[in-house]
Write a structure and sequence with these properties.
The chain has 210 residues and is mostly helical. Helices cover 82% and strands 2% of the residues. Helix 1 runs antiparallel to helix 2. The longest helix is centred in the last third of the chain and has 88 residues.
Length: 210
Amino acid sequence: MTAAVLPLVLAGVSAVGTIAGGQAQAKMANAQAAATQQAAQAQALASLRQATMQRMQGRSEVLKYREEGVRTLENVLRNISTVNARAGAGGIDPFSGSAQALNNYALGTASDEYGVSLDNAIITLRSNELQAGVFEENAQLQLDRGAQEAALLRYQGKVAKTQSYFKAATTMASAGMSYAQIGSAPTTGMTRTGYTSGIVGGGGRMVGGV
């Protein structure tokens, strides 16, 4: 191997190493991007599960308030039946007088309590639905953030890979120019082409020659 070719070989080795490094960076960036998206998806899934649990909790509480309302109605019906039974046993008209007044009071109280139970059920359902909506929004934000970060990582890996190609090409081009300059330089030293030598003898006469 001549001295002129050696820089080309070294430049080739350097270029291959540069490209390999860029490809490794791109591969690592893609792996990081995939891991980032997986983490975001896991977080989003956790948020969606929280939303589901929030809705289930809200419905469970709503059922409790509805049961309270049903018990209130059952109690008022039971009270009215008792009043009517006692009024009838005493020979009193249950639909007039004090008996009717007691029944109206019981109905009014039960109506208020039942209304409160329904209001509580509606408020609970809506508040839990709002909270579930917040969890769902967080899930979407986590997915979007993960996708953006993954896209940025992939782009950085692509840029590193492209830059490695450009750097390798620049290295080879520089080495090629150097080789061309060395190869076109004039050679130094004496050549024997057309050279005539001899020994001058006595009387100034040259003896021998090429």
